[in-house]
Structures are given as structure tokens and as C-alpha cells.
Amino acid sequence: MKWLLRIGLVVVLLVVVAAVAGFILIDNIATAAVQKGAAFATQTDVAVEKVDVQVFGSTATIINLDISNPDGDYLKVIETFPEEYQEAFKSFLILGNGTAQITIGKVLSDKIEIDKVELSDIEISLVGKDGKKNYEIILEALKRFQGDAPPKETESEKQVFIKELIISNITVYYYFDEDPALGAIAVGPKKIVMADKEPMVLKDVGSGGVPMSQITADIITDIMVQVTANLAGDLGGHMKGLANSLIDTIGAGKFGETLGELGLGDSLEALGGLGIDLGDGVIKGGSDLIEGTGGAIKGLLGGKKDEEKKEGEDKPEEDKEDKGVLEGLNPF
């Protein structure tokens, strides 16, 4: 019986040692998972200073996540920028602060369920030179995650589900040379701070559990939809190019659905003025907002007025059929 007791004690000791080692190494494990997921999703270099997991505080903090701009000759133009812009344009996206509310047991399981994630102090750079654009390269990589199932290479990744995701305080650095195809003039290098915009709040991200790289892909496209909608009035045809690339990547329906989830109805007229193609025609102005996305964003600005009038009853002039005053217009 003594040898059974000794074996039992050894097993218990090994379990304790493994648990302690797991807690000690959890920061390294989490850092590697975030870095690997982001790098695989974007197909570019990613650096993460550290993911700090507070076991007893039930929080995790991402410190300095930096997604590099994809390599290419188009980046040579950055060398001509004023010094204060050169560093910002080396990266495609920088996450300054990320925190998550976690349950330690769930973090160590195969399926990580996170109650709340807050991402803030985000910097994103958009570069277009000689017809080459950094966002097109990134979105082409993210397109791999838009099928019925994520890439096979993600099978070894832990599954992640975020109940609530909040994204705020985005700064956009941009430079675009003239693009006649988009009717857009050269702009930048400049930056726009979107700190005054309402935070993006998304529910059930990765519902059911998806690989970390899929979460990364979804978050990046959500941020880019937000940027497109909010800067359409400032950057005109250049945002039409970004919007069309997003639609090509995630589909017209998802683009419209994301606009709706983010509460960006007041940005639709600016997008409509660009004549953005959503598959079944363009985004329309007025109340006839969309008919090509399964109604995903139709009605965000109020919908059609008084469609059901009694026969013979006169309609006020403003209630007559809305022809979509912005349909097809491209003032840029």
C-alpha cells in the first residue's frame, strides 16, 4: 500500500508543478498566441512586447502590439516624409492599449471565453503610391478567413470567443498620391484623430469559438470599416478605394452589417456620395439606403416614408418615391 501512496504523492506533486509552471509561463504563452495569430492573419511581421496576465486580478493586458506595413517599393515614399511621420508609417497598425477580463481557468482551456476586451489608442496608416496600397495587401491576406471555415493552418490555435469588444481612440495616418481611377487628388502625409468618435461596441465576436488569427482578421476589418465611414467626407475617392477593397474582402452584406452594428448610419450619405458598389447597385442617399445587402443597413436613416398610403390620398412632395439622390454620384 505504501508504494501506491508514494505514486499518488508523486502524481499530485507533478500536477502541482505543472500548474505552477503554467502560471509562471502564462504570459509567454499568451504573448506567443497573440503574436502568432496576428502574424498569420496579416502575413506580415508582428511584434508584441508582452501580454501581462494577472492571474488573481482576472485581467490580461496587451502591451505594444505592432503590425508592420507589408514590404514593397511603395514604402520608399515614407523616406520623403517629415521626420514626425516616418515612424508612424512604418507600421500598418499599432495597438497602444488592450485589456481583457478573463477567467484564468478558461484561458488555460482549449476554448478561451473572454467576457470583455477593450482596445484603445490605436494607430493605423494608409499608404497609396503608384497604384499600390498597403491596405490592399493586408486585406488580400485577410480574405483567407472569409470562407465557411478558417485556413487549415489554424487548427492548432486555441479557439477564442469574446462576449463584448470595445474599440476606441483611433488615429489614422494617411498618404495617397493622385489616383485618376478613383478621381482622387494627392493628399498627405497627415493624420486624423478619431478620439471624439463613439467607441465601437461589438457583441459575441467569434461566436462559438474561432482561432485567434480569425479574431485578429475580424477586428482589423471592423476597424477599417469604421475608418472608411468616418473619413469618407474628408478623403473622398481614396475612401471609395478602401471601401471597395473591404467589400471585395468581406462581402457587401458583411460590410453593410458591420456599418449597422457600429451605428454608423449618419456616415452613409458621405459613402453614398462616392457611389460605392454594394453588389446590387450603389449606396443610395435619402431614405432608400440600401437594397443590395439583404436589408442589413436599409432604414438606418429612417427608411421609406409613408409607403402605405390609402388609394387616392395625396402624398406630400417629400413623401413621394425617393429616387436615391446620391445614387451613382461621385463628386470626387
Defining traits:
10-stranded mixed beta sheet, 8 helices, alpha/beta, globular, disordered C terminus, 10 strands
Count, helices: 8
State the low-pLDDT regions, or none.
4-25, 281-332
Give the C-alpha Rg. Answer: 24 Å
The percent range for helix content is 25-40%
Q: What is the succession of H and E elements?
A: HEEHEHEEEHEEEEHHHH
Shape: globular
Strand content: 25-35%
Extended strand count = 10
What's the mean pLDDT score? 77
Compile the SSE list and pairings.
Elements lengths: L1 H41 L3 E9 L4 E10 L14 H4 L4 E11 L2 H4 L3 E4 L1 E14 L2 E2 H9 L16 E9 L2 E7 L10 E7 L6 E12 H24 L1 H14 L1 H10 L6 H5 L60
Parallel strand pairs: 4-7, 5-7, 5-8
Antiparallel strand pairs: 1-2, 2-3, 3-5, 5-6, 7-10, 8-9
Helix pairs in contact: 1-5, 4-6, 5-6, 6-7
